[in-house]
Amino acid sequence: MTARKRSGTMALAGLAIAFVLMAGCQKPDPVAALKDRASKYWGLKQSKGWAEVYDAYLDPEAKKTVTREAFLKRRWLAFDILSYQISDVQEEGDKATVAVDNEVNFPLKTPAGELTFIKKQVTTKDQWVRREGKWYVVQTE
């Protein structure tokens, strides 16, 4: 191997080592699991997958007082979520607040009794709780 090829090979190896070291030095996002779970939850809210929300995302403590049927009935007239983006996550031990910027269509009745929709940007703050290592959304109704 010529000196030129050896130099190129060593430079390439040095870059590979530097890349591995840089990747290893990055801290993992401590709230990544919660962000991922909250994003899936909001995707279900947007698609009105309320049965799966109840089964997989609702705090097990809430299920002791809220039946599946009551939960689903309450969400029958839920407003349309047009878009959403998780904007902030504040974790404190096994509790967290997830702020979500979302655009929604609010249904409103006109004085004539007709239904109209108003598009609005809102920020929603959901309370989450970690139980046995898994995050659940806290809902009281």
Key traits:
4 helices, extended, alpha+beta, 141 residues
Give a nutshell description of this structure:
The chain is an alpha+beta fold. Helix content is 38%, strand content 35%.
Architecture, CATH level 2? Roll
How much strand content do the residues show?
25-35%
Radius of gyration: 24 Å
The helix content is 25-40%
What's the SSE blueprint?
Elements: H1 3-25, H2 32-47, H3 50-57, H4 68-74, E1 80-92, E2 95-109, E3 115-131, E4 134-137
Antiparallel strand pairs: 1-2, 2-3, 3-4
Describe this structure in words.
The chain has one domain (30-137): Nuclear Transport Factor 2, Chain: A, CATH 3.10.450.50. 38% of the residues lie in helices and 35% in strands. α2 (32-47) runs antiparallel to α3 (50-57). It has 141 residues and is of the alpha+beta class. β2 and β3 (115-131) form a beta hairpin.
